[in-house]
Description:
Blueprint: E1 14-15, E2 18-19, E3 22-25, H1 47-50, E4 54-63, E5 67-75, E6 80-88, E7 94-101, E8 115-121, E9 124-131, E10 136-143, E11 152-157, E12 166-173, E13 180-196, E14 204-216, E15 220-232, E16 235-244, E17 258-261, E18 264-267, E19 272-274, E20 283-286, E21 292-308, E22 311-327, E23 333-349
Pfam families: DUF2804
InterPro entries: DUF2804
Amino acid sequence: MYSRQFCEPPEQLVQNGKAHFGSFDGVSPAIDIRGMRAPYAGVPVPSIISNLRIKSRLEYIFSLKDFIGLCQFYDFKMLGLGEIIFWNKETGKKYVYHTIMSPRRRFVPVLTTRGICACYRKARFIKISWGRQHKHHALTFKVKGDNARPDAEGYVYSPIQDDMHTDALFVCPSPASSRCSATWFSSMKTMGHIAINGEASQDSQGLGMMILNRTYFKFHSKNSTAYGIGNLKGKNIVFYLNTSNMDAAASDSYNSNVLVVDGKQTALPPVYMTHPFGIDKNWIIQDTESMIDLTFTPLSVNSRTLNLIALRTNYYTMYGTFEGVLLTSDGEKITLKNFPGLLHKGMLRL
């Protein structure tokens, strides 16, 4: 059976122009991949230039009693993009709020001990934060609506004492060893609520995961990501599956796919995601090691295309259900049916 061992995380991800590749149980003090030697075509250029190709993405996925959703920030150096999208589980109604942030020194922090990534616009206050030596994560937002959407506010936070809390760090070639991609994955139990148009709402328990990624981007990149999050037969389960055109050439050894069951992590093999009947139809998610065999059925799809000078992005965010089988590192078979989750497919040209 497929096996990828977790090691102790390094103090620094890049030293002397080379990255410490691997899968790590825990996280380094900073997610900083600057300083790779000749990351593009083997041509040595000043690091101040090659560092401009490092882009960051921060995601917070949450599932509460009544809502499931995704908040994400993109750091493109010259500007930042923020979005929160969530669905009512019972009705399937979606709520989408976007924002564009003006240039600043850094949108997504590099420190893992504590940090804040936020948009402070009056109509779009959205904040993801972490602290207490990365054992406490929180999402807070208050957004104004318009003719197409209502006002909304909410918060989601993880308790300090949390038996579902995990930290994992994945440092992978992207796709060759001259460039790298670093992903910090954290799972957690959550408490929180979402209120629409100021309606009274009580806190409920749920699950969450936060993913912070930094990568030396290509000029044209594509990626697909699946997020599973829910409870099955009394077990808390979250999983994160990602594939892109920047995956490591040796993706069996280096990838960021992971499954967490009641706080125990399993490193998963690389996956293939296909949608033979269309993006809004069933997705097939499989590996070559017989550990992952899933079908994702979208229930609601949100799409967006954005053109800003040299930047073009097009992506789909879908809420739906998973069916199929996952295997843990202990050989335990987890059979999913109508298991809630999200799927994101994106394209970026920059």
